[in-house]
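Narrative of activities, Objective 1.

The group set out to show that a structural description can be obtained from nothing but a protein's sequence at a throughput compatible with the screening campaign. Below is one input-output pair from the validation batch, recorded exactly as produced.
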Amino acid sequence: MLIDLSVPLNEKTPVYPGDSKTQIKTGSTFEKDGCQNHYVCISTHVGTHMDGPSHMLSGEKNIDEISLDRFSGRGVCIRVDNNQFDIEKIKQVYIQEGDIVLFHTGMSEKYHETIYFKKYPAIPESIANYLVQKKIKIIGVDMCSPDHPPFPIHKILLKNNILIIENLTNLKSLIGKEFKIYAFPLKVSLDGSPVRVVAEII
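Output recorded for this entry:
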């Protein structure tokens, strides 16, 4: 069974405060051209998307320079109760090298509310450093970010080749299940990319 963990991408998709909104314009139409196409203007960090190292670190890799084997792997979903990240609880979870670790906070239920971009919990540095030690591939959150400015968690993870996926949804469907994650971004020479994230229950 496949579970879609991505939010819809359209002109109503919320954007991080200060980012440009998504714009979609009609190119061809059936009536005029016999086919249809559209022009889409989006941020590299809109909707469900992946941050590459160059998003926060000057001179580091763009998303198209990341090896394909980094975009899929065994998934682990950890529930975060009451917006409190607990390092001791996380240490009790079986995490292997190369895993993709997802945090279910429940913030995705407030995706279209102002609070979503203001009152989300930040991952502590102790947890980020622990995941670096475990040598995971990706961290994913059902929030707009794993931290707040000046984004110390981004920098810890990205400088250690751990990619970041933001604005995930449907994570509650993964609690207690074994699954694999597929999260392939567009092959763009940029700092990040929208990504379709899918969990395969195994």
